[in-house]
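re: ur question from earlier - yeah i can do the single chain one, its not a big deal. heres the input i used so u can compare w yours
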Amino acid sequence: MLDHALRVAPGLADATVLETRVGLRPLATGGVPRVGPVPGVPGLFVAAGFGAGGLTMAPFAGDLVAAAVLGAQPALDLAPFAP
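and the output i got, formated as tokens:
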């Protein structure tokens, strides 16, 4: 991985690696993320299970959840993504 990064940014060749981080990218069962209110828990909303697509879908999912939290109609029907 570092070799590939140095091809893009060769000036980092003499840099010191301070830490390495690894994060999970959980994918919901069936590959369908869970977005919306959690049944039986008033006021609790979730946006999770996006897998590797989470970084690219987060802004849209956040907008959907924000609308739902505020009591507005989200731009997309959340029923297929219900937690």
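Strands lie at 34-37, 45-48. not sure if urs matches, ping me
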